[in-house]
Amino acid sequence: MKSPQSAIRNPQSSLTPLDYAYRLLARRAYSEVARTVDRLKTQGYLDDARLAADQTERLRSRGFGSEGIRAKLTQKGLSSDSIGQTLETSGENQDLQSAQRFLASRFSADALKEPQIHARAFRLLLRRGYSQEIVESLLGSAPEDG
Questions:
Q1: Do residues 51 and 59 lie in contact, with contact meaning Cβ atoms separated by under 8 Å?
Q2: How far is Cα 65 from Cα 137, in angstroms, rounded to an integer?
Q3: Looking at the predicted structure, is the pLDDT value of residue 126 above 90?
Q4: Which residues 6+ apart lie within 8 Å of 117 measured at CB?
Q5: Which among 142, 67, 143 has a CA at the least distance from the CA of 99?
Q6: End-to-end CA distance of the chain, in Å?
Q7: How many Cα atoms within 13 Å fall on the side-chain side of residue 28?
Q8: What is the pLDDT of residues 64-118, one digit of tens each?
């Protein structure tokens, strides 16, 4: 069996930091966890703002809009303050650019002229967390069935 130390050094390990903490606490009692967490925050190892910014960048690169990012970060347990500050700094212009890149990576301009493809792209952008205004500004009204 691998030691907790080697599992932490090995990125292939399935041992999470919480699992490691449980293993340590099972062996013997440790002093206040809150002190440890505070120390890790002070040293910069735990930083919700940085985590929110990193995750926001990662999710944007995968084609998510602000509301989609907000939902994903909330699921990860980040505070609404950290999420709000991160999304506030990126702004709506970032959403528009991200939506443009995502749309171009999925659909050709010719394909978007077809009503079914247009509707599919419209729904996809909304599901990814882009606002109705951004989606409408990119796609406009539905093309006519011709």
A1: no
A2: 14
A3: yes
A4: 107, 111
A5: 67
A6: 66
A7: 2
A8: 999 999 999 999 999 999 999 999 987 778 999 999 999 999 999 999 999 999 9
Residues 6+ away with beta carbon under 8 Å from 115:
142, 143, 144, 145
Torsion angle of C-alpha atoms 72, 4, 42, 34, degrees rounded to 10: 90
Quickly count: other Cβ atoms within 10 Å of residue 47's Cβ: 14
Distances (CA, A) of 46 to 38, 65, 121, 143: 9, 26, 38, 49
Residue 68 in contact with residue 59, Cβ under 8 Å? yes
Q: Per-domain residue ranges for the chain? A: 1-46
**CA 77 → CA 7, 61, 109, distances in Å?**
24, 21, 38
With beta carbons less than 8 A apart as the criterion, state whether 120 and 111 touch: no
Structure confidence by residue, pLDDT tens digits, 13-32: 577 878 887 887 888 776 67
> Using an 8 Å Cβ cutoff, are 129 and 64 in contact?
yes
If 0-12 CB within 10 Å is exposed, 13-18 middle and 19+ buried, where does residue 46 land? middle
Which tokens in the block code for residue 89?
């700094």
